[in-house]
Request: fold
Amino acid sequence: MLGRAAGARAAKQGCGLPTGRPAKLNATTRAGAAQRIGDGAIPEQVAADLGVSRSTLYRELRKHREGAVAERVGRKADQRSRPHPRRSALFVAVSAITTEPLAG
Reply:
């Protein structure tokens, strides 16, 4: 039986299909649950409304948090790669002043 399952898993991977058990909640539902809990809802009630256990809800919320952190880190990296517009203008102004010959 293990050999048959391994063969099926390898075939799915070869076709580019996901393997393993599908997630209970998708990204939109995770975000909605996080918003409800942030607004003060009781996690046990949110889990019951979604039809999952409390531990599943917390696991899915951890995935949501990790995804949000990864997005913020990526955004900060993008922001660091571009020069600040005011700094660029200041550099141009200062370099224009310092390159003029001194009178005297």
